[in-house]
Specification:
Distance between the termini: 16 Å
Number of helices: 15
Strand order of the largest sheet: 1-3-2-4-6-5-12-13-9-7-8
CATH class of one domain: Alpha Beta
Organism: Streptomyces minutiscleroticus
Strand content: 5-15%
Number of strands: 13
Shape: globular
GO molecular function, one term: catalytic activity
Helix content: 25-40%
Largest sheet: 11 strands, mixed
CATH superfamily of one domain: Amidase signature (AS) domain
CATH architecture of one domain: Alpha-Beta Complex
Protein name: Amidase
Order of helices and strands: HHEHEHEHEHEEHEHEHHHHEEEHHEEH
InterPro entries: Amidase, Amidase_CS, Amidase_dom, AS_sf
């Protein structure tokens, strides 16, 4: 196994025990970027010299016995919505071509303080307003979509060009590409991870979280990210915590909700079969399965769009009027559509969310975790626009990918996507675990137990 293929936890242990130096690890990842990224397109910018300089500093600290923690010397990619001082934040858009950040975002500063090494900024669907990230190709099949909008971050982790990465998630943008590329994606509780210095898509739905190779890795990154920041109005007043799950796989006492509606409707049979096998594995580990009814499902899509579209348009109002031609057509149309939405529709969407949160709270009193597919289908070919289901229903690709992930953004509950197998074409399938607000521990416990008792995932094939 190449150093670039190590999990974060394995790399951290190798650095701690002096079997691997941060310089060797970072060089391996940079070599991998040079080898495969021209074909994959995960990165907007590769910060090679900065990374090598940081790796040397991390190595000197390690030699002096001053390890900062498990992220010390670990190579990371940051979605190009996340400010890093002196580095461009383009949002993968011509609108931001000349923008450079003056200061670090909160998450970039926290990761740097933990010793992580930035190797580059990863592509997003322009301003995170889409579910495919067209600049980036799927790590498992170059002819298929990477998923979005954190497609660059997911592909970087899946292909060995970052040991971990950060993404943002407004309607599924961490979990969708995680599922389509066979990695772990965590959308934390709304407000748990600060968003100061992160370009917004929709402020009442936006989250920042990690994409990693394992659930344990996600917990390690979350421990470095979480905590109150007064510069983010939504930031929760929580104290620092170690989110790592325990070593055991016994899930006795854990109640796993299995939806009887919505989450298995219009889902590819291979996806459903893989997720149900994974749920059976949770039961075999001691969890108790409980059927649950997902509330207010007819309002999910309208609520998601009713919140996101006007908030995105408000954020882009000045640029949209000054330089509309610099936006890609798909994003510009959505932003212009937002100007036509009446205020009453936005207020009704806010009311719907309030009611939905109340109903989800009641449902989550009955279970600790809900298990469901992350997305209803695996990665489609890059030129495919729609999915036709067995009953003849035709659904847009982006609508399909966001359908199962949006409820966690509307309600703010945490959600974890874990790989649970492949379809007959070899494309990854993801299972989504959802929990109560600030219930990350239950998700990480279940996800970690599952992956500890299933075969290890192979790295993405070389280009």
């Amino acid at each position: 196994m190449e150093l670039s293929e190590l999990s974060l936890a394995a790399a951290a242990d190798a650095i701690r025990t002096r079997r691997v130096s941060p310089v060797e690890l970072v060089d391996s990842v940079l070599d991998r970027i040079e080898q495969v990224d021209p074909d994959l397109g995960a990165y907007v910018t590769v910060t090679a010299e900065r990374a090598r300089r940081s790796a040397r500093e991390a190595e000197h600290e390690a030699a002096a016995g001053r390890l900062r923690g498990p992220l010390h010397g670990i190579p990371m990619g940051l979605k190009d919505l996340i400010d890093v001082a002196g580095t461009a934040t383009t949002a993968s858009s011509r609108v931001r071509a000349d923008h450079r950040a003056d200061t670090d975002s909160t998450v970039a500063a926290r990761l740097a303080a933990a010793g992580a090494v930035l190797v580059g900024k990863t592509h997003t669907h322009e301003f995170a307003y889409g579910l495919t990230t067209p600049q980036t190709r799927n790590a498992r099949d170059r002819g298929r979509v990477a998923g979005g909008s954190s497609g660059g971050s997911a592909v970087a982790v899946a292909s060995g060009t970052a040991t971990f990465a950060l993404g943002t998630d407004t309607g599924g943008s961490i979990r969708v590409p995680a599922a389509l590329n066979g990695v772990v994606g965590l959308k934390p509780t709304y407000g748990l991870v600060p968003r100061h210095g992160v370009t917004s898509l929709s402020w009442s739905l936006d989250h920042v979280g990690p994409l990693t190779r394992t659930v344990e890795d996600a917990a390690l990154v979350l421990s470095a990210l979480a905590g109150h920041d007064p510069r983010d109005p939504a930031s929760l007043s929580t104290t620092a915590a170690d989110h790592r799950p325990g070593p055991g796989t016994d899930l006795t006492g854990l109640r796993v909700g299995v939806p009887r509606n919505y989450y298995f409707d219009h889902v590819d049979p291979e996806v459903e079969a893989a997720v149900r096998r994974a749920i059976d594995q949770l039961q075999a580990l001691g969890a108790r399965l409980v059927e649950v009814e997902i509330p207010m499902t007819r309002y999910i899509q309208a609520t998601q769009w009713g919140l996101m579209v006007p908030e995105a348009t408000a954020y882009h109002e000045q640029a949209l009027r000054a330089i509309p031609d610099l936006y890609e057509a798909d994003v510009r149309i959505l932003l212009e559509a937002g100007e036509l939405m009446p205020a009453g529709d936005y207020l009704r969407a806010q009311r719907s969310r309030t009611l939905m949160r109340q109903e989800w709270t009641r449902m989550l009193n009955e279970v600790d975790v809900i298990a469901a597919p992350t997305v209803p289908a695996t990665a489609v070919p890059t030129d495919q626009q729609t999915i036709t289901w067995s009953d003849g229903t035709v659904e847009g690709v982006s609508d399909a990918y966001v359908r199962l992930s949006a409820p966690a953004n509307i309600t703010g509950v945490p959600s974890l996507s874990v790989p649970v197998g492949h379809d007959t074409a070899g494309l990854p399938i993801g299972m989504q675990l959802l929990g109560r607000p600030l219930g990350e521990a239950a998700l990480l416990r279940a996800g970690h137990a599952y992956e500890q008792t299933t075969p290890a995932r192979e790295p993405a094939p070389a280009a």
